[in-house]
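User: Thanks for the earlier help. One more: Peptidase A1 domain-containing protein. Can you show the sequence and predicted structure together?

Assistant: Of course, both are below.
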Amino acid sequence: MASPALGLLLLLLAAALIPAPASAIGFQLHHRFSDRVRRWAEGRAVPGAWWPEKGTAEYYAALAHHDRALRGRALAAASSDLSFADGNATVRLSSLGFLHYAIVSLGTPNMTFLVALDTGSDLFWVPCDCKQCAPTTSPDFGQNVSFNIYSPNASSTSKKVLCSNGLCDLQNRTSCTAEASNCPYVVQYVSANTSSSGILVEDILYLMTEDAAPQIIKAPIVFGCGEIQTGSFLERAAPNGLFGLGMEKISVPSILSSQGLASNSFSMCFGDDGTGRIHFGDKGSLDQQETPFVIDKSFASYMINITGATVGNDSIAAILSALVDSGTSFTYLADPLYTKLTQSFKAQVQEQRLNPDPDVPFEFCFDVSPTQTTISLPEINLTTRGGSIFPVNDPIFLFSLQQNEYFYCLAIMKSNGLNIIGQNFMAGLRIVFDRERLTLGWKNFDCSDTTKTTKGGMNSTRANATQVTMPKPPSNSSTQKKLTRSLFSLLLLSSTIL
């Protein structure tokens, strides 16, 4: 790679390529990786000159390295990880689509919002000056739960984002009537008729450093004032907002990095018990497994390549790309991997397969005997590009209809083409989204204490198999029946923008 001194030389020379008009004094500037600079340097055989191809991993990594060099001093001063001011804890809520949620504080005076964490989309939005939003209270949300509604007029630190703002470029600028107009946004999600729309605003997001002497950080961020929600957002999925964690520059991780508040990386750790953690600036550890992101010029996302899978003693060949998406509750696989993996799983379990149930979206479900105390499952792993093994610690979903009456399903759904590693496949792992190195990292972890590594598995493990201990009978079987009937709709609600 070209040295920093050479990069500066190329930039200065590029500035002098085209003379300024006689009526002005100045230079025309060109990016060091621009075609104009490349043609100039190649024509003069500049030694050490290097140009990554646009849209490749090397191109984005070079830009990130350059940005980090410019912000290095600020990042050095903010070397500790950041979490939300109300804590880094996340929780999976079955009543709200089986997604992981966190509490965030916005504005002055601050208001709290329970937002779904979504690596499959970019924009952070909350219900705001509502014309059509989910109700602030509902029996489905739980007892004594009341949600807040944001209003720019109620916060002394709120600012409207104008069409002239650079972060408005990712939105629907055709709706801008003038550069000084408020920047509108419309985000359509995969679930049918599900969307959020409104205007972009800037306000304070309250974060906290994670060190011996924690400090509150007031980070100015841009987010969506969601005036109109449709579809799933009016029901049980993300009724109080969605926290987009994607790669685009409007996402909160991108904004924190651009301001020098955190390294361009974050981690999420989802425990088997439904609790978890999120850390901004976390770059993982040297002993974690890794694989590079797939760089798509048209859509930047956390996509990785899968080169195979194992189910117990069976090895399955596969070549596919999959989106790592915390905003999707369960995992979606397309054929041929879906059929090969599910058939192998069925052949290796001891329980009798159940007939399809229209109330249950999973195709492969199995009956559990009332006298069973454990379930023996074949171990499932995915092989990623580069050879790293992604362990699937929690491949099943256990249903309880009444006392001592259980069945379980392989929690994978068949896709028509898009492969998604959903939240359930992330359980028991600390997942590191390193956006500077453009890699996904993971490691078996105790998510209730992020200093502890675990051996993985749902309970205890043995060679190529996992032992699952049956839980105690539920105290309220009617709740479980209701959960079964509503699960199908909740699963579809969780799919995010692609």
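User: Great, one quick takeaway?

Assistant: The chain has a mean pLDDT of 79.
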